[in-house]
Amino acid sequence: MGLMGTGILKGLGVTLRHFIDTYAEDLKYVLNKSGARQPRPLRRQSPKNKGLVTVEYPRERLPLPENFRYVPFLVYDTEKQDDKCTSCGICAKVCPPQCIWIVRTEDPVTKRPVPQPKEFYIDTTICMNCGYCAEFCPFDAIKMDHDYELSYYPDQEPHARLVHDKSRLTKPDTYHASIHPTDWRRELEDRAAEEAKKKAAAEAKAKADAAKPAGGAAPAAKPAPAPGAARSSAPEPDKPAQADTGKSSSE
Amino acid sequence: MAEETTHPTPAEPAAAPKAAPAAKPASPAATKPAAAKPAGHAAPKGPPLATLTPELVQLQQHFGENVITPAPYVGVLVNDLNKLREVMTYVRDQLGFDMLANVTAVDYIKEGYIQVVYHPQRSKGGQPITIKVRVPRGSDPVAPTEVAVPSLTPIYAGAEFQEREIYDMYGVRFEGHPDLRRILTWEGFYGWPLRKDWHEPYYEGDTKPFDSRWPGGHHQLAEERVPWADNVNYPPGFDPLNFNANPDAGLYDSMLSGVPHAQVEPNGHAQQAPQPKGVGAAVPVYDRNHNNLADEEELQTDQIIVNMGPQHPSTHGVLRMVVKLDGETVTDLKLALGYLHRNHEKIGERNTWLHNIPYTDRLDYICGIANELGYVITVEKMMGIKPTERAEYLRVIMAELTRIQSHFWAIGFLLNDLGAFYTPALYFITERDLILDLFESVSGSRLMCNYMRFGGVSRDFTEEQIAHARELAFDRIPRKIDELEQLLTDNEIIKARTIGVGYLPAERSINYSLTGPCLRAAGVPYDIRRVDPYSIYDRFDFEIPVFYGADVYDRYRVRVAEMRQSLRIVQQALNQLDQTKPGDIQAGKKAYNHRVPAGEAYGRVETPKGELGFYLVSDGGQNPYRYHVRSSSFINLNSLKEMVVGHKVADAVVILGSLDIVLGEVDR
Q1: Which residues in chain B have Cβ-Cβ distances shorter than 8 Å to A163?
Q2: Cα B272 from Cα B13, distance rounded (Å)
Q3: CATH superfamily of B344-667
Q4: Chain centroid to CA B588: how far?
Q5: Shortest CA distance to B161 belongs to which of B643, B635, B642, B644?
Q6: pTM for the complete prediction?
Q7: CA dist., res. B650 & res. B308, Å (int)
Q8: How would you classify residue B108: left for phi > 0, otherwise alpha for psi between -120 and 50, otherwise beta?
Q9: CB-based contact B129:B138 (threshold 8 Å)
Q10: Which residue from B197, B185, B167 is spatially nearest to B103, judged by alpha carbons?
Q11: How many angstroms separate the CA of residue B591 from the nearest CA in chain A?
């Protein structure tokens, strides 16, 4: 303890420094003519920043890290022109607040389930954005979105807006690739590896069949969505679905 | 959330006809000998969860037949309720378990009893012991138990709120409790929400996943299912249109008259506090020279009751402090809790084991990672699995960064409470946000991280994220903590406002089960990372900062010192991180339908607020049979009255700020 009042003065020194820093930092930015300017939101939220930290939200937006998760969407396979979802129901089971409703498609003739959702609802008023559905989906068919602005005008039908149905949920895989590049790259690699494996297995099987015509067929991996196995990559429950990288928002 | 649409009982006790069922004998199952172990909760198949510790053996030898251990069983059972106080006094005085960490109950509905579980522990450290008693749950689902458990409040002051919570949630009466009212729900709530036969409105099923979601899951908007639709059962004789509740009348009367609140009768209704009401006659009145004016008959002053909160920034959320004021001095204080109550524990029992992880984020939403850690290590204890090395390091890094950001927040808002409006708070929120940026880029969310998994974590750090963490831990945050101290520690105004304010000496703090920085500011070096190490905390070199002032100023200083120690841990963990295998973040197979071996466990971690414990009971299924959260914010509030009484109103706000509560965890 020094003289009475020195503690306060020391503290005021800190606020003064903060005050000056806010201008110094902006000045540094304005005087930097090199052209290698960082966008303002990035600069302001960097750990190196000393000045102001606020950004003017609707006009300026912070870049979202790749891992950022908001309410999920369904991935539409643009290559095969089909939903990736097989309506296996794992997402509905792992959903902690139970906000996912799925109606399975039935084959009109055989009445057996077809691996495609007839209806798919996510109640975004209930969704807690935990990301389990995306993490545990074995088909990479449901992903967490980056779109966090879900408000709507009162004259719009609220039911249609907050309870997302299948048409609202479905987004093309190009969109998924654009917001989750690392995840997408991993998916492509996995798919290529899977194809190669399948090809090798088929060749081996063809050889075996040729050698022994009475050889039994390999059992199907999954009984219910058996036709779906041909449509998309095989489940990999032991592999973390999102072991991907994400660029930090502050770098 | 669920209770909002349930049915309050009319205020007058006569309206609900409960007297007749209450006279019924207890169900036959309840009279079974205690040794009959519930079938569903039999032998744990996993590793032994707890062995009989020497203390329990000693306890058994001393009390003989009264303390039994029906195997397989965790802890001991006191089979004579009248002996409970004697046993617990022995446990406290002879065995040295001076702190009642946790009290909770489990409703074994098939067996017909409710089991009250006590976890006393030593403030010197070590594992808690488990002591249980049983009361028949009775046949009337609405009446409280006929048999009352002796209240432990004379032995452990920290039992007060916890016993009230058990009364509120299970209807277990506690004999000799000073203020046995409902605490999280309101006076007049119909039924006991955590009993297994209590169902919330729009009840769908006991356990998730609900069958209605798949394969034929047609959605219905929750708002369309209104309270006046079916699925709401009002108490008999209750007319919602003419309902006029005044649940606080008894509270105010008891505070003004100085008479303890009416004891709860076996019929489930609190009787009105006895008269006189209105003016506090027996309270001394002082003039400015501290002379007692009571006998001079000149100055007639009234004591008034003021509600601070629930809608007020100084109460850090929806907390209501009902204070009795003599001028500006607080002479009595009671808390009205439960505004944020959503029956978290019932939700937890509906959920599967995995579902609960994101829910724990919502307990103390400032430090979600710490809550997740507490939950996953408790479940891992029951499942007998261990996370991978890398996952352990990532957990520690995230948990310690959580501590730093939580203390930044706590100190910033303590200054707000002191009247330094938002300048310090915003300086520290800036730093906190940089940490949250890291959380967001790693886990996908800033607060509700949902990062931990059983046996691992959900995502690995990338190189960029490690660089970000290093920049924070080695450069930015240490500088900013220095700046924080420069700004605040020597400030004369802060010292004048905080030194000696909110004093609670060490032995009282322990008796009140106070944990966390507040306990360490009273000179008790109690930190679970050290006294009962979990995860890999035993590998790091760090200290447990202790101060001895037991006041608001030292609570502040403890937090600053802890931030520095947390930084040391983060720095060491980041340095050692490259010795682990990248990508190896999940032990075993990643699964979503975990089955936990039957048994029970009490696991705890040191969160920034104090001891966070999870008491989990599994019946071997996909869902917890019992999921209890020992919330440090809630139990720390127990001691608020003793800290505040005698101080001015403005200091009451500061003292509350120094406790650093989060209402999401208080009300659960």
Answers
A1: 219, 221
A2: 10
A3: Cytochrome-c3 Hydrogenase, chain B (1.10.645.10)
A4: 32
A5: B635
A6: 0.81
A7: 11
A8: beta
A9: no
A10: B167
A11: 7
Identify from B440, B485, B498 which residue to disrupt to test chain A contact, counting A C-beta atoms within 10 A and taking the largest count: B440
In this complex, do A65 and B441 lie within 8 Å of one another by their Cβ atoms? yes
Nearest residue, CB atoms, B215 vs list A45, A103, A125:
A103
Joined together, the tokens standing for residue B545 give 């900062």
Cα B399 from Cα B438, distance rounded (Å): 12
Give CA–CA dist A99/B431, Å, rounded. 35
The neighbouring-strand residues paired with B604 are B613
Listed residue (B508, B606, B502, B612) closest to B156, CA to CA = B508
The label of the residue with tokens 């001691």 reads B639
Q: Where are the domains of chain B?
A: 2-175, 344-667
Residue B647 CA: distances (Å) to CA of A114, B29, B284, B501, B635 = 71, 52, 15, 8, 21
Cis before B209? omega within 30: yes
Buried b / exposed e over A134-152, threshold 16 CB at 10 Å, is bbbbbbbbbbbbbeeeeee
Pick B219's closest partner by Cβ from A94, A163, A238: A163
Instruction: Supply φ then ψ for residue A49, to 5 degrees.
Output: -70, 140
* Model ipTM value: 0.77
| Strand extents, DSSP E, B404-554 | 452-453, 456-457
Domains present along chain A, CATH in parentheses: 15-63 (no CATH), 70-184 (3.30.70.3270)
Which pLDDT tens digits describe chain A residue by residue (251 residues)? Answer: 456 788 888 888 999 998 998 888 878 777 776 656 677 778 778 888 888 888 888 888 888 899 899 989 999 988 888 888 888 889 988 999 888 988 888 888 888 888 888 888 888 888 999 989 999 998 889 999 898 888 887 777 655 668 888 888 888 989 998 998 988 898 889 888 988 998 898 888 888 877 765 544 444 444 444 343 334 444 444 444 343 333 333 33
Q: Per CATH, the architecture of B2-175 is what? A: 2-Layer Sandwich (3.30)
